[in-house]
Amino acid sequence: MNNFITTTALQTELQHKIDNKTKPIGALGVLEDVALSIGLIQGTLRPALRMPHIIVFAADHGIAATGLVNPYPQAVTAQMVLNFIGGGAAINVFCRQHDIGLTIVDAGVNADFGDMKHFPRFIDAKMGYGTQNYLDGEAMSSEQMWHAIEEGKKIVQGLYDSGCNCIGLGEMGIGNTSSAALVMSFLTGIPIEDCVGRGTGVNEDQLKKKMETLVRAFGRHRDRVCSHASAAGGGLAAGGRPTADPYTILQCVGGFEIAMMTGAYLRAAELRMVVLVDGFITTAALLLARAIESSVQDCCLFTHASGEQGHEKMLRFLGVRPLLNLGMRLGEGTGAAMAFPIVQSAVHFLNEMASFESAGVSNKE
What is the DSSP string of 45-92? Predict the structure, then answer.
């Protein structure tokens, strides 16, 4: 743990408080780990979750227009944004159920949404009408990449300033599992072939085509990504592979929504917010943020294991255990929303459950 969010003394006090609740030590299992983590993130023996909120970042990807990596047309991204705004998506349902705020961000959808004043939590932060096709060149310019990161920080700062201290990130973008797989491979050293999954449900032939396409994309950008890391003072990672520069990865193969989530993670960690990490694409953005500032992970709770095959490998790479494993692979922040009641229960037991002393119960035979 990093000193900016915790001290050994606080960890000892929190553990003592947890162990002295009216229960056998460890009887609440993972809830005890979650309670300890949140207390450390917030630096207190009495943590609180205020105004929990999920931000869904939506953007299009140039590769999706080719049909090489996705069975659904690119237009589905814009259609789903309208579904979010209309309140009909899974993330809307779960946020209503658990009283979680929801913001939708147009990070770079290939459509215009006009006047959305009737949906107060819609943010127009469009970086462009989708990224460029990374088979032909860079996905985005350096200026777009930096602007997207800063926009993500700004959005999180706004929520924090309004009183929120717990956020989950979600995403929507046809083709974004492909960007996430490339990010994952560059940053973990896992071969791209082992990072690619079915995304929105490709069949065997489509999966083969997707795999071949991403192998080409990885090869096209590998030298630039790693040479930029070397120029920045990078060396060799585990296994002797060259390190990869997170900013260059974003520029070469990222998406606008992934760049904004990277910035969102960075600012949330600076503000010591509790961050609920969702699935495959949001964890890819976390890998980028973590490569920029390693302490980001200390503020994160990993909510579920996605059905996208690369996600469990990401979680193993990070050395973390998710709260849920329901076979979900929808994105949108749905895993974060589903896990929130568990996180909430951990805080409530820590603050409200009696201790042996206060209840007059003996904790020894």
Answer: SS----S-EEEEEEE--GGGGGTSS-SS-THHHHHHHHHHHHT-SHHH
Q: How far apart are CA 120 and CA 176, in angstroms?
A: 26
Gap between the Cα atoms of 149 and 101, Å rounded: 22
Structural domain boundaries enclosing 248: 53-346
Residue carrying the six token digits 């990596």: 69
Look up the CATH number of the domain holding residue 281.
Answer: 3.40.50.10210
Residue 61 maps to a domain: yes
Predicted local confidence at residue 361, as pLDDT: 63
SS3 state at 277: strand
pLDDT in tens, 141-167: 999 999 999 999 999 999 999 999 999
Instruction: State pLDDT tens for residues 49-77.
Output: 999 999 999 999 999 999 999 888 999 99
How many Cβ atoms from other residues are within 10 Å of residue 9's Cβ?
8
State the total domains in the chain.
Answer: 1
Instruction: Write down how long the chain is.
Output: 365
Active-site residue flag, 138: no
Q: Which of 13, 204, 332, 352 is catalytic?
A: 332
Three-state SS sequence of 267-301: HHHHCCCEEEECCHHHHHHHHHHHHHCHHHHHHEE
Examine residue 21 and state whether it is found in any structural domain, yes or no.
no
CB-based burial label for 19 (10 Å; 0-12, 13-18, 19+): middle
Would you state the structure tokens that stand for residue 194, as one six-digit string? 């082992």
